[in-house]
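pasting for the record
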Amino acid sequence: MLTTTLDKDYQDMPHESVPCPLCDVPNDYVLAKRGYPDVPLINVLCRTCGLIRINPRMTAEGYEQFYQDDFFTYLNPYSRPAYIEEIERTTDDTYETPSKRLILPYIRDYVKENGNVLDVGAGFGQMVYILRKEKNVSFVGLEPDPGSRSVAKEKMGIDLLPIMVEEFLDTNTQTFDFIFMEQVFEHLLTPLATLKRLANVLAPEGVIYIGVPNGYDPQVPMALFYQLAHTYNYTPATLKKFADAAGLKIISIRDPLGNPLEALLARKDSSYPEEDASRMVAGSDWKDVARRLTRKQRINTLRSFGKKVLTGVFGNTGKERVRRVIDSLIRYRY
């Protein structure tokens, strides 16, 4: 499993209690008390709306320091094959990186030729590089992490602004035809307020892409699903609540049980038809979400125990051989 050690002990930094941004009432159910990178981290589920969030959490000053000083170490991209592909192969026109293969086909028809794109949390600059090549877009890319900005400059030839989206919006005068947030919305400290501000700079027929971990059906170990950087986690139902509260509508959910959970949002007065309501109900019952996440946590615990037993009895090589036999028989991953 992905592991890392941070330079600073963030659990000792000032923390604050944060009410649910949708409900603004203290009505929380505790889901977990630890998270990646194996630190005390209380994740709660709002009993009123079903939103998952860290509470209490570091203050904005603590998170700003985290993104400036430690996020690249935390992300550990050179230990993750998909990130290595993005870094090393995006500029290779003959190679289909995960972004080219999985994201581009979903958003291509919504990105205006010669349009203006805002990439929030642009990472290594791979998506603005792809969209500039595909659609000849103008762009603004925001990335607070200096390590990721350095990769974007070196590998993509892309200059990204070293600021958070909230700071950018304080002085921005542009409107955007497409706003891209891939694995970013779960990092925001004020997601509803920020989404409202993004709606205000969205062109009349503009579209916002959001891709987040699926809080209704996580496909990563729960010790990684709950993590320091993910201040909020979302289900289809809570994404719809955020869109409604921000004056937006969801025009597409790619797969309600998909990972990541991907949605396209537009202004309520745009010409786009709204997504079928039946595709946005998953996660509307907080007890259902709690049961699913608790069951997933228990399964992860059993798998971890199984791995330790197999390693102790057979060693790493033998464990992998036994695991493959078990997988072929009962399709259960140890």
